[in-house]
Amino acid sequence: MKSEREASSAADRKFVGALGRGLDVLRCFGPRDPWLANQDIAARTGLARPTISRLTYTLTRLGFLRHSESRRKYALGAAAVGLGYSALAQVDIRRSARPLLHALSQHTNSSVHLAINDELNMQVLDTYWHSAVFVIDIGSRVPVATTSLGRAYVCALPEDERKVMLERIRAKRPAKWPNTRRRFEEAFRDYQRYGFCLALGDWRREVNAVAAPLDPGDGTKPVVIGCSGAAFQLPPELLRHDIGPRLVALIGNLRSTLSRQE
Asked: In whole numbers, what is the pLDDT of the chain averaged over residues?
């Protein structure tokens, strides 16, 4: 069984399949899944167990994974951690956004996140939380289909790229597509009218969230800033009439800051 990326790249003669499979293995790890066994990785990538065994062995030899004999599992190694921090340090928008994210988190008593797209997920680059009620840590990945971060990202895409992303979501979750499509239609309307998107218990029943996208203006994909928290703390009315508009204002302030730095 081929991974999604391998299948989509099968006709690309420049694509190095072995490298792609190795990177697919590294993508399996995250803050909520620091230790994985070969069978876990095989289930997540769709690759055969013998292939996974060779890949994890190679990645361990190179320092991108480390192995625990007692757990009989793997975790990201120093080489992967160093690469991640180097990439994070190069995201200039993160430094400019940090004081704004912190101020919004303090004012709204909610968690505030800066995220970029990673296939069918959104990857959190920075985060502030006001309480431990709901925490998404740096490096976490959340689904595009059911989160305000993902919906805001899709709303900001050019129409042709938006269609491709929605088709990928439909193919990944065909049984849930009718409801997912309705949620995206609502998100498109909200974005056109208000400049932000909502997710009310769609990803997790107890969590409500709002997000808005920003074009960095450097030719890269949109980044997204969102606020999330416990549903009883962030009812829909508060998100629509207070936090959402504040988020749009933050996006405008950040855009102005970035333009002055050019």
From this structure: 89
Residue 78, token pair as written in the block: 């120093």
- Spatial neighbors of 185 by CB under 8 A, at least 6 apart, are none
Q: Which CATH superfamily is domain 91-261 in?
A: GAF domain (3.30.450.40)
Domain with CATH 3.30.450.40 in the chain: 91-261
**Exposed / middle / buried, residue 121 (Cβ in 10 Å: 0-12, 13-18, 19+):** buried
Residue with tokens 């969102």: 226
pTM value is 0.80
As a whole number, mean pLDDT of residues 181-187 equals 97
Tokens (6 digits) for 85: 């921090």
Residues 198/209, Cβ–Cβ less than 8 Å: yes
Task: Say how far apart CA 85 and CA 80 lie, in whole Å.
Answer: 9
Task: Could you please state the CATH topology (level 3) that the domain comprising 4-83 is classified under.
Answer: Arc Repressor Mutant, subunit A (1.10.10)
Band of residue 140 on the pLDDT scale cut at 50, 70, 90: confident
Neighbours of 225 (CB within 10 A): 27
Question: What is residue 72's predicted lDDT score, i.e. its pLDDT?
Answer: 93
